[in-house]
Amino acid sequence: MNITDSEMVRAKGIPAPQYFNEKTGRFEPITGRNGANAFIEKGRVVKDYFEGRETVTKTYDTPMFGFGIVNDGVADLTFTINGMQIPVRENEGWDDLFEPFTTVTINATGPFRAVVRE
Hints:
Blueprint: E1 10-11, E2 14-15, E3 18-21, E4 26-29, E5 46-52, E6 56-71, E7 77-81, E8 84-88, E9 93-107, E10 112-117
C-alpha cells in the first residue's frame, strides 16, 4: 500500500501522532521515551565496520546513507559512492552523509578502517 491509500491511526476519532512506515505500507503511532517522539537521523546507525589493506567493494541489500573511513597508510586511497570518487590522504579521515547508496568501493594499497551507516 502507498501513503495515499492507507488509513491514518486515530485515537478517540482524532488522528494520533503518526508516521508512514514504507516497509509495512501503514501509518504507525509515534512512540518514544516518556511520550516524546523518537527520531533517528538517517546515516547515523552503524550497519557495517571493516578493515583492509587492499581494494574492496562492499554491497548492501538496503540503502545506506553514511560512510566514514580512516586512512592509516602512507599512501593516498580513494573511495567511490554513487559514482563519486573521493580521495583520502595518508593519515587522514573522511566522514559524511550521501544520497542513498548500496555499493562502496575502496581503492587502497595500505591499511584503512571504514564504517557504513544506514
